[in-house]
Amino acid sequence: MDYWSKHYIPTLKESPAEAEIDSHKLLLRAGLVRKIGSGIYAFLPLGAKALENVKNVCREEMDRAGAMELLMPAVVPAEYWKAGPRWNAAREIMYQVGSAGEKAELPEDPQFVLGPTHEEIVTPLIGGEATSYRDMGKTFYQVQTKFRNEIRPRYGLMRAREFIMKDGYSFDATDEEATDTYKRMAGAYEKFFARCGLKFISVEADTGVMGGAFSHEFMVPAEVGDDDVVYNIESGYAANVEKATSGIIPTDFADIAPAGEIEKFETPGVKTIEKLAKEPFNIPADQQFKTLLFVGDDKLFAVVVRGCDQVEEAKLASLGYSLLRPATVDEIFEAMGAYPGSLGAVKGTIKDRSKLDGVYADEAVRLVGNGVTGANEKAMHLKNVNVSRDLDIDKFGDFRKVQAGEPCPISGQPLEIQRAIEVGHIFKLGTKYSENTEYGAHYVDKDGNRQPAVMGCYGIGISRTLQSIIEQCHDKNGIVWPWHVAPYQVLIITLDPGMEEADALTAKLGAAAEAAGATVLVDDREERPGFKFKDADLIGIPLRITIGGRGLKNGEVEMKWRDQGDMMKVSIADAESTLV
Ligand code: ATP
Ligand code: MG
Ligand code: MG
Ligand code: MG
């Protein structure tokens, strides 16, 4: 039992200007978090408790599904990433540091990175020692701080630069076993989000159809989300708009056009990327920029744009022809595993333009495109597009995403669209990471053959989930915590702190609630009742018990559930038995 007078719960009447959305305002007003820097937050005691509860519910569901908790380092030697398939693309989002103790800067050749996710680490960690098929069929997870240098952190914990993730990784001997593991994890995710009190949907997500991989996202419907989901209730179809639009979009350019293959597309007279960058844009040497590839009617296009995280935001000046590497549409579609009529946009980034000097477009595309992140970003996947010479931002209206009312691919009935927050993402990886010779994960099968493990990865944004709960569970007065994640489950407000009888009853009811397994906070502050009730609504503890005043004289206490309007007057004896 904790006492408010000794606690640190700095509630605020007004929400600070930095907060735009309800859940962010309430995180601050209820004294759960404070901002330290852009996208960087500290959890105050109440916030830390709620966060811990979300983590623990997650751990319970992971353990129940047979996964094992481990803990990997957050600071990892860069060579692990350099050996993997997405070093160039992922560098943009990674914090990179020099040798320990050196002044923090972005070194050209960093020795360490702060982990944004851990496929590159877990694969050799497990793969280095798992030698037999008997070592397969294992799933590991960790609950860890992750670091991503998001271009535009926003909405508090929703898109932060430092955040808490549960990341899990599975290693199986066969494709079928990997699919079973994936399904078991999907089931655990459903239980987890349900216990968090969230209404959510699981939707098909982009993967790029390569190597039999597939993927689902767990989405919390909310207007403040960054994703769009299309669905049809009757047919049960639900997908991220990007997936629905493309059906084909690779998450990783390396998958669709491995470095070796790109050279095959050599075309005489191809412009250098340097020229392209200079002519239409005049991009200063030190400025980051990106390349987008478009598949038009019969050509592959690459478009260089200034640093931006979404196409909508790109200040696309009219382009000097950005055709880099003509190839027939059939070649492209074959390479992408795609269907004619669809379009893929592939985005890569390079920070150091000097690296591109004198490099031919093909090579530049390989450099920037290796391990692409664009597949799952807004407006990156467009349909039936015809890139013209004078492409500019306004013309992006012509590139269309799947719209509400378009036919459902299963039933043909009209699709609906809903904005949503991505709280979890699971992915059947196949052998993309395991097949690496040095940093991979292989095992010897029953017949003595060396095989790459079939992997899956499973992420939950723990801190984003916490805020999503608040976004979905609040009213005009404050948070309405679901039971399992509430920082405390019972709040006892004593209106007469220091009065012997009231204190004794508080202690007694608090002990009864604790004995029943609930966590208890006592508001014993010397404040007016109205002030305490306001705070109680704001911090949103599920069950409120008020002791004191006239009720106490009548042998009664008041009980009120935060999610219900009515207050119940209950005899002291009944209150005790209610709690037990
Ligand atoms: P987003 O599309 O929102 O950028 P993502 O697809 O890049 O997310 P994943 O790589 O799938 O994220 O990571 C797994 C989970 O981690 C996500 O489903 C999300 O809940 C959470 N997450 C990712 N980025 C952030 C962030 N910047 N702040 C908080 N949580 C995040
Ligand atoms: Mg992201
Ligand atoms: Mg995403
Ligand atoms: Mg994701």
TrEMBL record:
Main subcellular location of this protein, as a coarse class: cytoplasm
Molecular function terms, GO-annotated: aminoacyl-tRNA deacylase activity; ATP binding; proline-tRNA ligase activity
GO terms for cellular component: cytosol
Pfam families (alphabetical): HGTP_anticodon, tRNA-synt_2b, tRNA_edit
Start and end residues of each Aminoacyl-transfer RNA synthetases class-II family profile domain: 34-482
Keyword ATP-binding found: yes
Keywords per UniProt: Aminoacyl-tRNA synthetase, ATP-binding, Cytoplasm, Ligase, Nucleotide-binding, Protein biosynthesis
Reaction(s) the record says it catalyses: tRNA(Pro) + L-proline + ATP = L-prolyl-tRNA(Pro) + AMP + diphosphate
Database matches in CDD domains: ProRS-INS, ProRS_anticodon_short
GO biological process, alphabetically ordered: prolyl-tRNA aminoacylation
Keyword ATP-binding included in the entry's annotation: yes
E.C. numbers: 6.1.1.15
Ranges in coiled-coil conformation: none
Cellular location(s): Cytoplasm
Top-level enzyme category: ligase
Its job: Catalyzes the attachment of proline to tRNA(Pro) in a two-step reaction: proline is first activated by ATP to form Pro-AMP and then transferred to the acceptor end of tRNA(Pro). As ProRS can inadvertently accommodate and process non-cognate amino acids such as alanine and cysteine, to avoid such errors it has two additional distinct editing activities against alanine. One activity is designated as 'pretransfer' editing and involves the tRNA(Pro)-independent hydrolysis of activated Ala-AMP.
Domain notes: Consists of three domains: the N-terminal catalytic domain, the editing domain and the C-terminal anticodon-binding domain.
Quaternary structure and partners: Homodimer.
Matching HAMAP family: Pro_tRNA_synth_type1 (MF_01569)
Family according to the record: Belongs to the class-II aminoacyl-tRNA synthetase family. ProS type 1 subfamily.
Name the record gives this protein: Proline--tRNA ligase
Organism in which the protein naturally occurs: Pelagicoccus albus
Gene: proS
